[in-house]
From TrEMBL:
It is a multi-pass membrane protein. InterPro entries: Acyl-CoA_DS, FA_desaturase_dom. Residues 355-368 have a biased composition (Polar residues). The keyword Magnesium does not apply. The chain crosses the membrane at residues 38-57, 63-84, 190-208, 214-233. GO terms for biological process: fatty acid metabolic process. Belongs to the fatty acid desaturase type 2 family. Residues 65-287 form the Fatty acid desaturase domain. This is Acyl-CoA desaturase. It is found in: Membrane. Keywords: Fatty acid metabolism, Iron, Lipid metabolism, Membrane, Oxidoreductase, Transmembrane, Transmembrane helix. It comes from Parasphingorhabdus halotolerans. Residues 1-21, 328-368 are annotated as: Disordered.
Length: 368
């Protein structure tokens, strides 16, 4: 169904150059559409933010403009963390059709592309985190070339939006490309973006201020709000893989970063998340504030969501390592990151066995 959209790679496309990782496509119509779409979204946010700066310096702004900013920031923060990330990417809980549509719309109000693309790309990130194939690693680019520290941070932050690789929906879009709510959100993504950036702030200005507040509220509570938050989401990709602590060191550079966690309502506990990607909660200790996790718990109590996935509890052993509370006698086994299941489209990274005792990730993906 999703291939009916022009921005999704057509089945007939044959890339001239094959990517070394299965499920990553080089070039083609989808890569061009990706650059155009992200170019429009990012440039509108940047120009709107510059306009917000000018407006703030030359006009009196007050609670109308900044309350719109704050309310919108909370809304899209929930949308990205709960909608894009924990539900559509990782299936951390279940919800009915109306709830799925609501959190999909809320996510796309952040103007970070459609649920379909965001979730598929993020599944690819988990498939090859900080290895060849990762969509936004600060260590290697989209083609697997190593980068310097500062160039890598730039590529992981915004540069990856404009490379010529795309995620194969047949691999990373499982459970998405045939989901009616996902496809509805994808089809209406530009309308949702316009509503979020312009219409919603204008209505807010008229409700709580007057016509004289419309321009300022659109600039501050629309475009600047989206750009401000976007930098923290991208910061988890870049800063969150370089700066911070690791409770579970090993396979990738993911970090727990308290500042990023505060600004993203919990997603900055990134090392925790990479250890247990299907968990609805990124914070694992009481001091790791995870607002989106608390909201999911509230929704669960209200009956809006169910089958909420939870990570096991961890404690420190005698050597200071973090181990699962009920598996102190099996520390090494418990420190292996969990595999994302085929059922959630997420991958399938348990290497299958061949005659020599191991098989490539590509072979495992092919079987999936």
């Amino acid at each position: 169904m999703a291939t009916a959209f022009r921005d999704i790679q057509p089945e007939s496309y044959e890339p001239e150059q094959a990517h070394p990782q299965h499920g990553v496509i080089i070039g083609g119509p989808a890569a061009r559409a990706k650059r155009i779409e992200y170019g429009i979204l990012l440039s509108s946010m940047v120009l709107g933010s510059l306009g917000a700066l000018y407006w703030t310096l030359t006009h009196a702004t007050g609670w109308v403009e900044w309350s719109a900013f704050l309310f919108g920031y909370i809304l899209i923060n929930m949308g990205v963390g709960i909608g894009y990330h924990r539900f559509y990417t990782h299936r951390a809980f279940e919800a009915g059709p109306k709830m799925r549509l609501a959190i999909g719309i809320m996510a796309q109000m952040a103007c970070q592309a459609s649920v379909l693309k965001w979730a598929a790309d993020h599944r690819r990130h988990h498939a090859f985190s900080d290895r060849v194939g990762d969509i936004h690693s600060p260590y290697i680019d989209g083609h697997g070339k190593k980068m310097s520290k500062w160039k890598g941070l730039g590529i992981a932050h915004f540069g990856w939006l404009f490379d010529n690789t795309t995620s194969d929906m047949n691999v990373y879009g499982k459970g998405l490309i045939d989901d009616p709510q996902v496809l509805w959100c994808h089809k209406h993504r530009w309308g949702i973006a316009i509503f979020s950036s312009i219409i919603f702030p204008a209505i807010w200005a008229l409700m709580f201020g007057g016509p004289e507040h419309i321009i300022g509220t659109i600039l501050i509570g629309g475009f600047f709000r989206n750009f401000f938050f976007l930098n923290f989401v991208m910061g988890v990709n870049s800063i969150g893989h370089v700066f911070g602590s690791q409770r579970f060191p090993g396979k990738d550079g993911s970090r727990n970063n308290w500042f990023m966690a505060w600004m993203t309502f919990g997603d900055g506990w990134h090392n925790n998340h990479h250890q247990h990607p299907r968990s609805a909660y990124a914070g694992m200790m009481w001091w790791e504030v995870d607002v989106n996790g608390y909201i999911i718990s509230l929704w669960e109590k209200m009956g809006l969501v169910w089958n909420v996935q939870r990570a096991p509890k961890y404690v420190r052993d005698s050597t200071g390592n973090w181990v699962q509370e009920k598996k102190l006698a099996a520390k090494q086994a418990s420190r292996e990151p969990e595999e994302m299941s085929q059922a959630d489209g997420g991958l399938m990274f348990q290497d299958a066995k061949n005659d020599s005792g191991s098989e490539t990730t590509e072979a495992a993906l092919t079987k999936a």
